[in-house]
Each structure stands twice: as structure tokens, then as C-alpha cells.
Amino acid sequence: MGPVVGSEGTRPTWSAPVRYAEADQQGVVLNAHYLLYCDEASTEFCRQRGILDFGEMLRVKKSTLIWTRRRSGVRWSTSM
Predict the structure, then answer these.
(1) Nearest Cα to 37, choosing from 9, 10, 4?
(2) Residues 6+ apart with CB under 8 A from 55
(3) Reported pTM
(4) Residue 40 pLDDT > 70, yes or no?
């Protein structure tokens, strides 16, 4: 898991390596893992800002993944 980088007023970023178990036989990350990446990134965001208690109260009510033709899935052995 990578750290959230950025200071006040800047856009935070997060990265993590794609693990072998998260990809299908073609090496593309399975859709369900993107929500895990979002969870890891939001947790790290709250931790970096000292609001982890607040972050633990957040719940996802609904999620939708929309794919565009311009982007392909993330592949194994790359970073998210």
C-alpha cells in the first residue's frame, strides 16, 4: 500500500502494486478489486489527516463502476 501524498490544497494521490491474486488469467485486475483499492486509498487518506476515527464510520451505500472505451483495465505487475 502506498502513502497518500500531498499537502493542504493539493490533490492527494495513492498507489499500490497490483498483486497476482487480483488479476485474471489475462493479467487484468478483476472488477471487484477496484472497490478494495478505493477502500485502501480512503483509509490512508483519513490516516494521513488524523481523522481515522471518522473514516471508520464511513460506509459505502452504493457503488457503480463505469468503463469507457478509452481505458483498459489495470494489469498485473503494474502500479495502481
Answers:
(1) 4
(2) 42, 43, 45, 46, 47
(3) 0.66
(4) yes
Q: Which residues contact 46 (CB under 8 A, 6 or more apart)?
A: 52, 54, 55
Confidence at residue 8, expressed as pLDDT on a 0 to 100 scale = 55
Alpha-carbon distance of 54 to 59, in angstroms, equals 11
What lies within 8 Å, CB to CB, of 30 at 6+ separation is 22, 23, 24
Closest CA to 30 of 40, 18, 16: 18
User: Is the pLDDT score of 28 beyond 60?
Assistant: yes
Q: In 3D, which of 75, 3, 11 has the Cα closest to residue 44?
A: 3
pLDDT score for 2: 53
Residue type for position 14:
W
